[in-house]
Amino acid sequence: MVDQKTFWLKKALKIALKSGCLRGKRGLVIVKNAKEIMKTFNLVMPINDACIKGGCLRDKLKLGLGKDPHVCRSIHAEARAVSEAAKKGISLEDGVAYITCAPCMNCAKLLYIAGIREVYFVDAHADETGTVLLNKMGVKCVRVEIKNDNPELRLRDITGQ
C-alpha cells in the first residue's frame, strides 16, 4: 500500500515530464481535504517548446546554479499554480503542496501567502532559503525519498539541478 505522500509525489513526478524545460522538469500537485485541487508543471513561456527551439537561456548566459534564478523563460510550477488558482477562484488556503523540487525563495513566499500549510518535495534545491523561510513561517517542509525514482527523466544533472 502506497502512503499518501508517495502517491501525490509520484503524481507530481509524472506531471513534471510535460515541461519543456531543458534543465529541470518540475511538477506540483496541491491537495486539500484529500482531494487534488491544482496540478501544474514549470511552463516555458511563451510556448512550451521555446527552449527546445532556442536553447536554454540560462546556458547561453552561462548562469550557474542558484545565480539569478529569475533569468529564465519558464514560470515555476508553484508560481503557475498560485496564478492559475487565483484566476479560477480556487483557494489554496490549508492546502498541502507536493513538489518535485524544494521551492526557491520566491515560490516559497507565494506558497506561504497562498496559505499552503505543508510542503513535501523530492529533490533538494541548490539554494535552501525557500525551505528555511517556510519552516520559519510555520509551514512544514519535508524532503521525501521515493523508491525507484528516476531523476534522470526530469533533470539534466541528476544531482538535483
Automatic annotation (TrEMBL):
Q: Which UniProt keywords apply?
A: Metal-binding, Zinc
Every copy of the CMP/dCMP-type deaminase domain together lies at: 3-133
According to the record, the signal peptide region is none
Please give a single GO biological process term from the UniProt record: pyrimidine nucleotide metabolic process
For the keyword Zinc, the answer is yes
- List the Gene Ontology MF annotations in alphabetical order: dCMP deaminase activity; zinc ion binding
Which residues does the entry assign to the active site, renumbered to this chain? Answer: 78
Which residues make up the binding site for Zn(2+)? 76, 104, 107
Q: Which cofactor does it need?
A: Zn(2+)
In its UniProt entry, what is this protein called? Cytidine deaminase
- Source organism of the structure: Candidatus Shapirobacteria bacterium CG06_land_8_20_14_3_00_40_12
